[in-house]
Give the backbone structure.
Amino acid sequence: MQELLQQVFNGVVIGSVYVLMAVGLTIIFGVMKIVNFAHGEFYMVGAYLAFYLVSVAGLPFFVALILASAIVGLCGILIERVIDKFGKDMVETDYTYFTILFTIAVSLILANTVNVLAGPSQHQIETGLSTAPITIGPVVVTAFKMLVIAIAFSVSIGFGLFLRFSRFGKAMRSTFANKEAAESVGINTTTINMATFAIGACMASVGGILVGAMFNIYPYMGSQASLKAFAVVILGGIGSFIGAILGGMSLGIIESIASAYFDVGYTQAISFVLIILVLVFRPEGIAGRVTM
Amino acid sequence: MAVLEVSNLSKSFGGVDAVVDVSFHVEERSILGIIGPNGAGKSTVINLLTGLYRPLSGKVMYSGKDITGLSSHSVAQLGIGRTFQHTTSFPDMTALESVALAQIYLNKIGLWETLFRPSKVERWRAARLDNGYEALELVGLHDRANVKCKNLPHAEQVALDIAIAVATGARLLLLDEPAGGLNTSEIGRLMDVVRTLQDRGATIVMIEHHMALVMSICGRVVVLNDGRKIAEGSPKEIQENELVIDAYLGKDADRD
Amino acid sequence: MLGVLAVLPLVFPNEYTLHLFILAAINIVFASSLNLISGYVGELSLGHAAFAGLGAYATALLTLRGYSPWLGLLAAVAVTGVSAYLIGLVVIRLRGAYFVISSLAFQMTMFFIASNWLTVTHGPMGLLGIPKPKLWLPGIGSIELVSKMDFYYLSVIVAIVVVIACNRLVKAPIGESWVAIRENEKLSAAVGIDRTRYVRIAFMFAAGFAGVGGWLLAHYIGVVSPNDNMSFDLIISFILMVVIGGRGTITGPIIGAVVVTVLPEYLRGLGNWRLTAYGVILALLVIFLPRGFMQLWEMVYSRLHPLVVAALPIKRRE
């Protein structure tokens, strides 16, 4: 039983990162209809930036976290601008092709460039926190893991509150629901689009940095992360914030429990098996309401 | 003899009633008009008949056959053709190519012929182009045969959509607001085309906003409001029907 | 044309050039097949490498147990065709981004199985020692197609057959239906075209031909492994082929295949930056030349021959 609780806790830790990734991906798809294949690369680039800021520039972890994510956010805006400029007048099928292939291209460029510049070896981001295990009840944790949950949740929930209660957040939700309607009431969808992509990229970056501090970073960590993010978004339901949270937690916990019984390699398969199962039996996911 | 019988058709979207208990029938070789204020559910009815939506309840009989809830392509293959409100047909095909395409389902050229009898495939294609040309002549587009659909001005687009529906060999044609965006002379030509179709044996159901058009060529008119049928009868009867007048005036009043 | 192809290996007997020709022919098979579903029907499939790999593994498993490579060819087509049917039951009703993601999930599942089902596939090590096909010619007896020259002729003939088949499919009502579905799905249904049926046909043919390509590759290289036959890199190159050449045309994929085959040669100087270069090329292509080389060709052609286009004889019955 204790073993199970431990696995659940570990699942919650990694699940909270999945939630971050999934929320970013889902808002990008929901607001702009872009399937962002480069999402994992935002995660990876953020992690590498933070690593260099900490180990080379000597910045404290939290400063690096914020700075790196801000930079990635700006990159996100840049990419969004390019997509908007060239994709604006395309027909829907062309647009789908364009955004998918373009983001695949971006992910290729980013992953390969980092691989060449930084080398394939793995690193870990220093946090300056003690890694001594702390026992809370039946579960053994570390200070940092608790922090991961705290950061990931506060960012996700903070964003959720922002969506619900702030004026900008409401504007975002309107654009999400119906772009033309939002424009006709005077919402500047261009700003919304830029902000959405920036926030999504930022959140991915935070996720990458947290994982990079917990485990390690390597140039192709992005593709794994992308797949997990897609799995969570499909599981939770595209366009659903609650779905992203439920889905992210579920995937994290399921993987964690499974890792106790199966090889690490097989737990990775859970993501894509899940995608296929969901698409077969309940395409709208746990909480989604989007029809195809 | 009723070619189309719609009984108690209903549909709602996420709790909002779009079509409620609508029934009507269409006599063979007649022209039925469906009118009603915006949002009355007219297009929804057509979409329900042609398989774009599944009805919540109700029945649709076509020439004695139950076609309720059949998919779009099945409905089309049974001989029901339709036009859409906003379409650019098949943008990169020429007008002639699109009316040729509309006949594809008529001869199921199988995989065997496709792979091993290209000359037969080519002959079928030539035959479709010939027939397609006739359909274009019917709507007056024979000299625009080689123009790409996306380059056709709106009035010709509408004519092409009708030609496409006709080319499928459909005996029942459902036209969704064909007069939208047409000027007076174009509407006149539209009337001629519809009458010609009727002469050639087709049955036509037309959703329209253009009252003069409806009143002059429709034999009977059905009026919808808020998803319900509120009146049915000859054009003259409808014009004098109080409920109908209220429905339209009511909507106008709301807009102030 | 045929004459040129027949004589080519005699003009360039260089082993390496022959190798490129063979790869180009195999890539033409891959590109033309992907084009059916991703060019004509218009649904971007990221799972194509999985079918290519399935074909390769199918023939490898059979021929390593002593069966004829020709049986392997049948098996490759059968396996890919059936899998495409089954997968299709799930993915064909999806569109756009959903189709893409599910095809990717299928791709990764297959890659995963190939890498981990050690007893059957030997995992990343792969299966080695795949025999070459034998041909029985009257008067000569059975010859094994061992030399590059032999394989060149085999792969070119196969490529020609596949291209002709695709061409016939495209020119037939089947192909017209694909284009109609792509251009205006609602209208295509309204004229009686059953989308599910036609997309399934495209998907199965695409998979089947990909299996044929996989068969060729397996017997040419003699080794199958997840990284050689169904990696993500392979999908990228497939997509590049279709995008460079021009999706939705017959010649497009051929051009794209040839370009992608020789591209590594020109990019060799970039060393490790190769993949980045691919990414940049892909990005520039989808922005400026989304319909590939054929778009370029069309732009040139239509400038030069505007009158030809307008004066096409109108077919009419006299």
